[in-house]
Amino acid sequence: MAVEDKHISYRIYMVAFGIFVMAIAIAVKLTNIQWVEGDYYRKLAKERTVRNFVIPANKGNIYSADGSLLATSIPNYEIHFDALAPKPESFEKNVRALSDSLATVLGKSSGFYENELRKARANKNRYYLIARKLSYTQYFKIKGFPLFNLGAYKGGIIIEQETVREHPIGKIAERTVGYERTSKGESYDGKGIEWAFRDYLNGKDGKILKQKIAKGQWKPIRDLNEVDPQDGYDVISTIDVYIQDIAHHALLKQLEIYEADHGCVVVMETKTGHVKAISNLGRGTDGSYFETTNYAVAESHEPGSTYKLADLMALLEDKKADTSSVYDSKGGVIVYSGKKVRDSHIGGYGKISLARGFELSSNTIMVQAVYENYKNEPSKFVNHLNNFGLNKPLGLSIKGEGRPYIPQPKDKHWSNISLPWMAFGYGVSITPMQTLAFYNAVANNGEMVKPQFVSEIKEWNRTIKKYDKEVLNPRICSQSTILKLRAVLENVVKKGTGSKLYSKDFSMAGKTGTAAVNYGINGGADKHYASSFVGYFPADNPKYSCIVVVHKPNTVNNNYYGADVAGPVFKRIAQKIFTDAPSTNEIKNLDRKIPKQESDYDSYFVKSHVKQQLVPNLKGMSGMDAVALLGNLGLKVRILGVGKVKKQSVEAGQNIVKNATILLELS
Question: pLDDT-based confidence at 608, cuts 50/70/90?
Answer without folding.
Answer: very low
